[in-house]
Amino acid sequence: MTQQEQQEQQVAREAVHAGERYVVAVARYFEAWNARGEGVLGKAVAAAFGEDATYTDPLADVAGHEGLAAAIAGAHAQFPGFVFRQSGDVDGHHDIARFGWELVSVADGSAPVAGFDVVRLGEDGRIRSVSGFLDRVPAA
Question: What is the pTM of this model?
Fold first, then answer.
């Protein structure tokens, strides 16, 4: 095997590892957004987000675990009986990843809200920041 082929294989292995990093971070993100109950929610937020993480979308601009937990609890209160579900694949490079999501009714499977988020990961793999965008919202 030539040195060029060895380098190409190494780059491919690193890309797979980096891709796994994004997938794991996004899975933890959805675990946090779907967590119910103060103790469970707090643990899920701490597992997914760094201490000083920020979350900004058209409806919220919060920081830290408490701010994130409050935003998530607010979404649960506004949409009881709904869960967040990933839509499509996670795409990423460097310490940034993006992914789509939907807010889905457990009762009938409808998804009145959808969007995509861009996250920046810390060295520990937890999310440092989220920039969220809404693509579909219910009519007012």
Answer: 0.86
